[in-house]
Amino acid sequence: MSTKLFVGNLPFTLSEEQLEELFGQAGKVVSVAIPKDRETGRKRGFAFVEMEDAGEADEAIRKFHGSSIEGRELVVNPAKEREQRSGGGRSGGGYR
User: Fold this and answer.
1) Is residue 69 domain-resident?
2) 68 is in which domain, residue-wise?
3) In whole angstroms, what is the distance from residue 29 CA to residue 60 CA?
4) Cα–Cα distance between 35 and 82 in angstroms, integer?
5) Who's near 38: CB < 8 A, 6+ residues apart?
6) 56-60 contacts: CB < 8 A, separation 24 or more?
7) What is the number of other CB atoms lying within 10 angstroms of the CB of residue 64?
8) How many domains does the chain fold into?
9) CA separation (Å) from 55 to 36, 40, 69?
10) What is the pLDDT along the chain (96 residues), one digit of tens a residue?
11) 86 is a domain residue
12) Which CATH number is 59's domain given?
């Protein structure tokens, strides 16, 4: 079963391909996603890396948490499940 990792404090210049290559040193990478800001389209400075199994994910945490890339110290830990969000905060209906 695959394990998803949160990778924080990424340099904004790092690509998904570079991140996949880096984490590939710890095991098989299933997927990499670097979210972008909806309005600006700029990278948000973090990513999600899915490793093939929990042992490889643990190895990636040991290997990369606290390591430095382009002068930035990476934060690597297991990703938390996304919380359910409400309907968007718009309330009421009709004209006022």
Assistant:
1) yes
2) 3-77
3) 10
4) 14
5) none
6) 56/3, 56/26, 56/27, 56/28, 57/3, 57/4, 57/5, 57/26, 57/27, 59/26, 59/27, 60/5, 60/23, 60/26, 60/27
7) 21
8) 1
9) 29, 37, 23
10) 899 999 999 999 999 999 999 999 999 999 999 999 999 999 999 999 999 999 999 999 999 999 999 999 999 999 998 776 666 555 555 565
11) no
12) 3.30.70.330
Q: Which pLDDT score, from 0 to 100, does residue 83 have?
A: 73
Token duo for residue 22: 């880096």
Tokens of 75: 């934060």
Of the candidates 16, 83, 84, which has an alpha carbon nearest to the alpha carbon of residue 50?
Answer: 16
What are the E-state strand segments in the chain? 3-8, 29-33, 46-51, 68-69, 72-73, 75-78
Secondary structure of residue 31 in the 3-state scheme: strand
Q: What is the DSSP letter of 88?
A: -
* In-domain check, residue 40: yes
